[in-house]
Amino acid sequence: MGGSLDRRSRPRPSPECPVLLARRLSPLVLAWVALALAPACSMGPAVVVSTPHGLVRAPTETSAQALAEMVSELYPEVGARLPGAEDSRPDVWLQEQLDLPWYTFAGDGLTGAHLDFVGRVYLEQAPRREMATTLAHEYVHARMDEVFARLPHALQEGLCDHIAEELVPEFAAEHRARRLLQALNGLGRFEVEVHYSIPDVQGRHGARLSFEAQGIDPGRVFEHGTVAFWFLDLEEKSGLYGLGLVAVDRLVRDGGYAGLHAFLEATADGELAERLAARAGVEPAGVTGDGVTGAGVEGTEPLAAWLEALFELFGEEELAALAVAEPALVAGLAAVIGRARFPDLDAETFLTEGRPRLSMPHHGRSVPIYADPVVCEAVRAAWPVLDPAHALERGSRIEALDD
Ligand SMILES: [Zn+2]
């Protein structure tokens, strides 16, 4: 999600074709626009509805009306939450499949985009709560003032996500869980625990699965400007989206969005990265060197501060949402741990007598795996075909937890 260009070269939103707008843009942006011309000049989705907050286009009358209602709700709500919100009123185009005039930079998983230089938000058709979350996110990009636009790009993304989660609470836990997985993946770290009510092969009642890999330097969330950000590879961008949300949650904890806005106004460019990192209670870029090594390696304290911030957000609601959204993933983790710790049990006994619960480390909250029929079915399916030894070959390990 995302794709707003550097605000300093931003033209006013305009209904004219980008051929004309292009003249007022910087050479780099001009090159992008040149890539984009043909599709961007096309007529767009068939049905047009006018709203007080901009034009809506969608493939059908029904979808256009539904989108217009969503626009009427979310545009003012974003404005009410975002200090200094601009009244940019971008058009909103709903497409069955996202077809950006800027597709060169669209990666897998992109569900929407705000293209500043055509004054337009693009949305992909999705269930209502997901579309609403994406629209709210893109509206934050579209309405951000020059003060918030000084945030490094990953933090702009985090701010968009943070406000979108507030405005669409029914999708917030799942959205956050996915972002936190992206953040963990970015750090090259994954840890999950399964607790059970019968003793395992060592007489314990829980085990932790840890996976470590080369990650990115998380402090880079404080570094990249918008243009540089979009040139990063997809994996790094994905990690920075997740870490951006983690950092923004800390940045707005005292004083909310207005507090962050005031902080930015009072902070000079030269010291911005360092002061943002200090305010978030995590380390700025460079501290962890080129790439981050996992836990268990000496000298990784900076990573610990990030993990602490991350797990503060990974609560019971997020875990439960993850089990609903990704039953195969959750079941696979449970089955790997279950097979390793109960080599003589079958899946059914592990589920009914072991009553396994999934938890993220460090906060003690957990969700029952045995109570969700879809996850249970996935555990039964994974159990006989999973070879824990094979699963543990690539940098992961399972350790018994103290009771
Ligand atoms: Zn975005």
Task: Compose a concise summary of this entry.
The chain is α+β, with helices and mostly antiparallel strands and 403 residues long. It has helices at residues 18-21, 27-40, 61-81, 128-143, 153-167, 169-187, 226-230, 234-251, 256-265, 269-280, 301-313, 316-325, 327-341, 347-352, 373-382, 388-391; strands spanning 47-51, 54-58, 91-95, 112-115, 120-124, 189-195, 206-212, 357-359, 366-368, 396-400. It is 48% helix and 12% strand.
Descriptive account of the structure:
By secondary structure, the chain is α+β, with helices and mostly antiparallel strands. The protein has helices spanning 18-21, 27-40, 61-81, 128-143, 153-167, 169-187, 226-230, 234-251, 256-265, 269-280, 301-313, 316-325, 327-341, 347-352, 373-382, 388-391, and strands at residues 47-51, 54-58, 91-95, 112-115, 120-124, 189-195, 206-212, 357-359, 366-368, 396-400. The strands form 2 sheets. It has a 5-stranded mixed beta sheet. The model is unreliable at 1-27, 30-34, 36-41 and 289-300 (pLDDT under 50). The chain binds zinc ion. Residues 1-2, 137, 141, 157, 160 line the site of zinc ion.
